């Protein structure tokens, strides 16, 4: 772990909070080259209804635009949740040097949890992986978000059931 990892992860957490404010899964990403943040983004999958608008992919796209190159060889990517297979593929293809993530993803994590695509020597590029930076903060944001989402879904289901019951009673 580098001394600035927690600082840059806190910037990724700020991006995740922007996603959460939109009702998106709170995941944020920041790309840093030589100590300068060159791109930042957050999940927009629900907003765009587009499966590929993950925080990492949006940040990579912005970084490529900023640098004028698809090669991000000197870049560190900070992301609040372990990258999925799609994002891990984009990380490898963009030649990002180092990936630092907060919370593990037991359902889709491809930087060490389910598998480790980023350090697989069979690919022509590998990225160094650092996990668990501000893990508790990153994880609790996600846990709380999904807890609230389940509560809302449960309340909506209960409301729907009540309306259906009232409709049936009204027909009798």
Describe this structure in words.
It comes from Bacillus badius. Catalyzes the deamination of adenosine to inosine at the wobble position 34 of tRNA(Arg2). It is built from five helices and five strands, in the order H-E-E-H-H-E-H-E-E-H. The protein has helices at residues 5-21, 45-48, 55-67, 85-93, 135-171, and strands at residues 28-33, 36-42, 75-81, 98-103, 128-130. The chain has a five-stranded mixed β-sheet. The model has no long low-confidence stretch (mean pLDDT 94).
Characteristics:
single chain, 172 residues, alpha/beta, 47% helix, 17% strand, MafB19-deam, zinc
Short note summarizing the structure:
Belongs to the cytidine and deoxycytidylate deaminase family. ADAT2 subfamily. It catalyses: adenosine(34) in tRNA + H2O + H(+) = inosine(34) in tRNA + NH4(+). The protein has five helices and five strands; from the N terminus they run H-E-E-H-H-E-H-E-E-H.
SSE diagram, text form:
Layout: H1 5-21, E1 28-33, E2 36-42, H2 45-48, H3 55-67, E3 75-81, H4 85-93, E4 98-103, E5 128-130, H5 135-171
Parallel strand pairs: 3-4, 4-5
Antiparallel strand pairs: 1-2, 1-3
